[in-house]
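example protein:
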Amino acid sequence: MHSIIYALAFLLALATASAAEPIIGRASVMDGDTLDIGGTRIRLHGIDAPENGQLCQNRAGKAFRCGQAGPLALADRIGSTPVSCDPRDTDKYGRTVAVCRKGAEDLNRWLVAQGHAVAYRHYSQDYVPAEDNAKAGKLGIWAGSFTAPGDWRKGERAMTMGSAAPGGSDGPIPTPTPPQPASKAGGCAIKGNISRKGEKVFHVPGSRDYDWTRISERDGERVFCTEDEAKAAGWRAPRR
């Protein structure tokens, strides 16, 4: 009798899960693989994207914020069109794991196909073909080199390593080249960088972005000997 009750309970749970209603509405992009619809956090099924603070290297070997490029591209792709997400599971953080679509387009697949995310092979093989095509076409992060998002989250963030695509059989992720040392005039090593927005920010040795900041004197950037010298010249410390 008990076995029959357990079996019925199991079948009821399956029916409930399969009958989960789609989540539909205006989506806010939280990061490269997470959306928010009406206060519900949705983790995109079967993909893994670079984290917000993650750096990759482009085709020319220059560092760029790949963890921000994907979310911006996804936000542009969605625009103001309502998104429909079909729940698959709930992750350990309480987020709904789902396949999300804009009309008939699978947004999970689109991110991988554009090289803004990789197939999360540990959980699904659904988007492996899309990843293979992006890798062959050198699209997005595949145009240069990067650390696999899962490895980056584990702390392997130095960018001087590469790692094989999880479960992949077609070779390793291209290994980033070590960063070029800054020119140090008279032992001065503080890098005064100018962002695309024209913000002047200095980076001291050992800080988060120091190794990946390159100085172009032609563009008005320079090296300082002390933080006071940098501040006096109009540069500021990075915002935390």
